[in-house]
Specification:
The protein is mostly beta strands. The chain has 2 domains: about 55-180, Spermadhesin, CUB domain (Jelly Rolls), CATH 2.60.120.290; about 185-225 and about 240-305, Spermadhesin, CUB domain (Jelly Rolls, Sandwich). About 10% of the residues lie in helices and about 45% in strands. It contains 3 helices and 24 strands. The strands form 6 sheets. It has a 5-stranded mixed beta sheet, with no helix packed on it. It has a 5-stranded mixed beta sheet with strand order 4-6-13-8-11. The protein has a 5-stranded mixed beta sheet with strand order 15-17-23-20-21, with no helix packed on it. The longest helix is centred in the first third of the chain and has 15 residues, at about 5-20. The N and C termini lie close together (about 5 Å). Residues about 10-40 and about 225-235 have low confidence and may be disordered. Its main location: secreted.
């Protein structure tokens, strides 16, 4: 059965479809299918392709995966509200303040966070994000209203807000920019294929899949320099500056997840693993000295695959939660 973590992650998505007045824009697949995330309807796709700006009101708890202009005018106090933004892996989120009417002195706030936070856990983790946690928040009430545009460092961002007085609110415009070298990513779907490239950058990159999955790595290049591979270490990944690790757990923060496997040798071929955790993360650690690349595909683990464990699987910590 799905865990509380999965219900928390998908709640905003299901909430959207259940709300009134949005059914012509939003569709949800059955819970038994692989992709319970919201999909844009054909009507909305046609409107966006025609150059029209998508506009609608925000809810206290909301999730957005498309560009547009979004507003909220409080009809009653809105005290613990958050909007989650998500794009494709190669997209960055741009949030523009168009209009803000809140009472900062009266306890209202409007904050943008570079990433996601769920029950105190962050994505990307503090180890993987280029900024310290304190700098990942942009507080409208403390920024002297000078920073009107905020850009995320990855394909997810969020807004926290509190509004006490009915009639107050704000309007934001959300756009997306292309990220040539996507690093930290939360997948919108339960299946897909992705190539992560870190070109001579000293950074760590995590790809998060909020499902139990079968993940197949088909190509891994580590320590690639001038067309040659560096000599492989004698054993394990100890002391190696460039490697890939697979993590599993029940929360959002990769730094708090269980290390399941390390890959520190380049190879071409196929390495498949079944990971029964609520959240699976492929994380690449790069020293910045080389061009590192990993290609992988994944799909949601089904019941038959959980029963057949003859292949190269990861069973510790994970399968009992399915």
């Amino acid at each position: 059965m799905p865990s509380a973590f999965q219900f928390q992650c998908h709640f905003v998505l299901i909430f959207l479809a259940a709300s009134k007045g949005e059914t012509r824009y939003l569709e949800v697949r059955d819970a038994g299918e692989d992709e319970p995330f919201l999909l844009l309807s054909e009507d909305l796709k046609r409107e966006l392709s025609a150059g029209q700006i998508y506009r609608r009101s925000l809810r206290c708890i909301d999730m957005l995966s498309t560009e547009g202009q979004f507003s909220i005018t409080a009809e009653q106090p809105q005290l613990q509200c958050a909007t989650f933004f998500i794009g494709e892996p190669e997209e960055l989120i741009m949030i523009d303040y168009d209009f803000v009417n809140i009472d900062c002195q009266g306890g209202d706030f409007l904050k943008v966070f570079d990433g996601w936070i769920l029950k105190g856990e962050k994505f990307p983790s503090s180890l993987d994000h280029p900024l310290p946690t304190s700098q990942r928040y942009v507080d409208f009430c403390e920024s002297s209203n000078t920073q009107r545009t905020i850009r995320s460092s990855q394909n997810v961002a969020m807004i926290f807000f509190r509004i006490h007085q009915p009639g107050n609110g704000f309007t934001v415009t959300v756009k997306k920019n292309t990220n040539l070298f996507p690093c930290n990513v939360i997948s919108q779907t339960a299946s897909g294929r992705f190539t992560m490239v870190i070109p001579h950058q000293h950074r760590n990159c995590s790809f998060s899949i909020i499902y139990p999955v079968v993940i197949k790595i088909s190509d891994l290049i580590l320590g690639h320099l001038n067309g040659l591979f560096l000599k492989k270490p004698s054993a394990g990944c100890a002391g190696v500056g460039d490697f890939v690790e697979l993590l599993g757990g029940t929360g959002l923060d990769p730094s708090k997840m269980f290390p399941l496997a390390d890959l520190c040798h380049s190879f071409h071929g196929s390495a498949q693993m079944k990971i029964g955790c609520d959240n699976t993360v492929l994380r690449m650690v790069s020293s910045g000295k080389h061009i590192n690349r990993v290609t992988f595909e994944y799909h949601q683990l089904n019941l038959q695959e959980t029963e057949d464990r003859k292949e190269n699987n990861i069973e510790e910590f994970c399968f009992p939660s399915i």
